[in-house]
Amino acid sequence: MSLRELFGGRDLVIATMHRKEEVIAPVLEKELGVTCFVPSSFNTDQFGTFSGEKERKDDPLTTARKKCLMAMEQSGAELGVASEGSFGPHPFLYFIPANDELLIFIDRKNGFEIIVRELSTDTNFAGSTVLTKQELNDFAERVQFPSHGIILRPSPDNYTVITKGITDVATLHRVFNELMAQFGNVYAETDMRAHFNPLRMKVISKAVIKLTEKIASFCPQCNAPGFGVSDIREGLPCQLCGSPTRSTLSHVYSCHRCEYRTEKLYPNEKKEEDPMYCDYCNP
Predict the structure, then answer these.
(1) What end-to-end distance do the CA atoms of the chain give, in Å?
(2) With 70 as the cut, is the pLDDT of residue 116 above it?
């Protein structure tokens, strides 16, 4: 069965209020033959905001699933897609910020969901207390303003006065002056909402391509779509001492429908790891 036989001509709702459909819809419509749309008056901020005034109570996957199911329920669509981004230190490159983007695809008619993740260091995620216009201008230049939006508020923990989506110098300086006059302190941060952050849009775009590739991978046992990597196993042996390292030894592929599993050794096409990545040779 082809992807267009499964999905062609069906409506698919994209659970967003931040224009993610601009990078999601073209790919899904081309590869799956679906017709994408965005629900009207759909407020994703109810699930949490990056700026912190509304805390995200659930983990990223649960949040993405809730967003997707709510959009499907409101619109009546049997196909839905939602993404959820997380920002912070890279899980392995600890001093480098990362964008961890999760994408979920749900087919209610056929009873399955497919999940992919794109982890990228290509992000401008940052925040800093700025007490002078020069410090503010330096921060703005560092985070690729004005093509990328900035948020200003009194301090990291003060949400009483917050201005989002700043993309011009006049507004940036005006809000800075107002906050300094009122609070004597200003906290600047990157606006990580997709429609104010082209770098994040690029990561979402990569995740969508990864999603379509996974959907197009059919289980060799039951022919269900979405047969893909469900677990990554460490333990690639050190070239020098033979001890297992933290590098990837194998990928485990599994089917969400029949639970068929298979393991592929050496997915990165190397059977040994450089001793510099060995905890024994290079503690």
Answers:
(1) 51
(2) yes
